[in-house]
Structure prediction request, 227 residues.
Amino acid sequence: EVQLVESGGGVVRPGGSLRLSCAASGFTFDDYGMTWVRQVPGKGLEWVAGINWNGGSTHYGDSVKGRFTISRDNARNSLFLQMDSLRGDDTAFYFCARLIAWDVRHGIDYWGQGTLVTVSS
Amino acid sequence: ERLMTQSPATLSVSPGERATLSCRARQSVGGSLAWYQQKPGQTPRLLIYDVSTRATGVPARFSGSGSGTEFTLTISTLQSEDFGFYYCQQYNDSVTFGGGTNVDFK
Prediction:
């Protein structure tokens, strides 16, 4: 069974940093691209970042480019999102998700349950 | 980012009726389009990818069509469990989601 479990969310002040982690199990991690998607409660989905199977290709949404960094550790079956220079509009649930193939440019077939990031003074 | 516009924002239908949801891209996204269903309190579920390929376990009443900039998700005979939000997503040029369509009970 595919499982994606996020951790690292919490409350942080504007301008601060936070690092999210996602532990993957139930599949061959380095066969798939991975992605982070966020959602403000009651609002729509926003794509944050994606990474291909070996970490050699990364892509970011315009609103986080230059502030967030996606990475992965295939030996530990883990996905990460380093979030710097956080702003109030970064407040959302952050979902770790698996892409249906090795590259970033694919649909998403499995989602974690999400971790809440709140940016507030 | 490639802007994706979904319409209508809300679609009110009765069980047994046909539902047609639209997704429009400002520029062509080729065949790189997916559809998701999300119910309150749940994570999204992949329905369709590559415009018209149903994901594993998705009932045949869900179908996707279109090309270039105009795409459609059709639910042929709406069931009670089909109510919820639907999002389109393009992955041709970076990745963007549409704003969503809420399919609710008429």
User: Anything to note?
Assistant: The interface with chain B takes residues 35, 37, 44-47, 50, 59, 61-62, 95, 100, 104-109, 111-114 of chain A (CB under 8 Å). The radius of gyration of chain A is 13 Å.
